[in-house]
Amino acid sequence: MNSMLTKSVLGVAGLAFTGGVFAGPVAAHAAEPVHGNAVAVQADKPDAGKLIPHGVQGTQSHIDLNDEQTANVKAIIAATKKAGLPERAAVVSIATSLQESKLENLGHLGDRNDHDSLGLFQQRPSSGWGTPEQITDPEYSTLAFLKGLKQVDGWQDMPLTDAAQTVQVSAYPDAYAQWEQQAADLVAQHWNN
Fold first, then answer.
1. 14: domain CATH number?
2. pTM: predicted TM-score of the whole model, two decimal places
3. Any residues with CB less than 8 A from the CB of 142 and at least 6 apart, and which?
4. pLDDT tens digits, residue range 116-133?
């Protein structure tokens, strides 16, 4: 097995939602990695070189997913396929959603959110991402994110955090990198299902 894929150091800790789309939420943010149990990646799934072409950057975070979060992973993958994009686009999308919402389709967060960020990607109706109903629909929000990603010249060849940040414009631009290994693991696990 490729040693790059087994480098994950993962553990358990809390992490507030960080970043946000186009000057999204800045309240209750923390950019420290979340740690969990080590995860092995099966090399017989989609080519690891396609999923993590630059190797992971920095300490990797990991969270255990519930059924709703797993369903959201599958919805992101389905939308990526619908958009005709490769596995790498799903990795970028899932890592972004892990950072923004921990793969939870969030409604309005009240006092914990000083903006109108919603959904898997914490997209903002006031920034033109769509209506609240649209951006809390996993397929719509993923396709909106992917539309932005496709407009980033060379996104396929840049580090994940740079591609995600160009679309999201987060207050914590480097925070996306910590989710690359888990996102790649999830794409490897669910892409062909």
1. 1.10.530
2. 0.74
3. 75, 76, 79, 80, 93, 120, 121
4. 889 999 998 888 999 999
